[in-house]
Design brief:
Elements (H helix, E strand, L loop, with lengths): L5 H7 L9 H15 L3 H4 L6 H23 L1 E6 L4 E5 L4 H16 L16
Helix pairs in contact: 2-4, 4-5
């Protein structure tokens, strides 16, 4: 289950991604959110708050950006006189993973969903 639909993404988040491919990207971003929140959202659907939706949109846009860099490349260095250009295709997987985590953490940091420990009876 994707945590955002295109209407939320377009109107509330005010994103600019096209509708084509949106469902796949939304599902992949939601799966990523599930993995970093230890599937807590699957177990307790009431935890799907606005912060979760914003985190999902943020991760979607980062995934889209990384796909664009992988497919088209980005100028890494440039020389003017003899016109030389070096492209980078974003092959640093650690950096890409960190950027995804940062995109999600911006909205989930204070929700408790990223907590790795075990909650005991009586804790909230």
């Amino acid at each position: 289950m994707a945590y955002v639909d295109y209407e939320y993404y377009l109107n509330t988040w005010q994103g600019e991604l096209e509708v084509t491919g949106f469902e796949q990207l939304a599902q992949r971003a939601s799966d990523y959110i599930d993995s970093i929140t230890f599937n807590r959202l699957k177990e307790e659907p009431l935890l799907i708050t606005d912060e979760v939706k914003k985190a999902t949109c943020s991760v979607m846009e980062e995934m889209h950006r990384q796909n664009e860099v992988r497919n088209k490349g980005v100028v890494k260095s440039f020389s003017n006189d003899g016109y030389s250009e070096t492209l980078s295709y974003g092959s640093d997987l650690r950096s890409n993973a960190r950027k995804l985590r940062e995109a999600a953490s911006l909205y989930l940091a204070h929700t408790g969903l990223l907590y790795r420990g075990i909650r005991y009876a009586g804790s909230r």
